[in-house]
Amino acid sequence: NAGVMQNPRHLVRRRGQEARLRCSPMKGHSHVYWYRQLPEEGLKFMVYLQKENIIDESGMPKERFSAEFPKEGPSILRIQQVVRGDSAAYFCASSPSSPTGTLYGYTFGSGTRLTVV
Amino acid sequence: DAKTTQPPSMDCAEGRAANLPCNHSTISGNEYVYWYRQIHSQGPQYIIHGLKNNETNEMASLIITEDRKSSTLILPHATLRDTAVYYCIVRPLNNAGNMLTFGGGTRLMVKP
Predict the structure, then answer these.
(1) Which candidate in A40, A42, A108, B44 could, as Cys together with A93 as Cys, close a disulfide (CB 3.0–4.6 Å)?
(2) Mutate to test the interface with A, among B38, B86, B98, B99 (most CBs of A within 10 A)
(3) Pairwise CB contact (< 8 Å): B44 & A43
(4) Residues of B in contact with A91 (CB under 8 A)
(5) pLDDT single digits (tens) B21-50
(6) Which residues contact B29 (CB under 8 A, 6 or more apart)?
(7) Contact B97 A97 (CB under 8 A)
(8) How far apart are CA A33 and CA A44, in angstroms?
(9) Is A27 exposed, middle or buried (0-12, 13-18, 19+ CB in 10 A)?
């Protein structure tokens, strides 16, 4: 049973370009969470999605950032017009929908390290 | 904001037990205590969780005080591969939408 898959592992973008980060949740998991970790800092919640729905985006910056989790395919975190301050590790986690299923917490992917040059 | 307090760093000798404390004095009755760790450059990894009873699994033991205001994660025989940042998190278990709120964690350094 494959874990949470994130790609790419490393992404380099020039200032002003777009960054697209992908996350495929574990099989049977219908909830996806995105976290950002700035260098030498802790993980900060960004957004929580279910299939075709954004449930909580309270941690998302107001501009340039968007997320989706379509009916088919992976969840996508999109950053438009990247700036150097966007350089960070972006982690995706998934969980099943039932309260019992979430008892053991979330499963995290290995992250995408975005570097803006 | 994180609802837990942990020491920023700890050292432990290889082969000895590592005892990582966590204060969660404002924990609610429906909140569990979770422990995760993050090894350098990797995603967080679930370790263990508990409500009020002590818990043990193949990775660690979790000791929760009777008043539930603090807990201790115990790695019984620490190895160099246990060097990581350890996060103590409280979270209610009523639905999947309760995201994890990470604090600063404890940076555990296991030394040979």
Answers:
(1) A108
(2) B99
(3) yes
(4) 43-44
(5) 999 999 988 889 999 999 988 999 999 999
(6) none
(7) no
(8) 11
(9) exposed
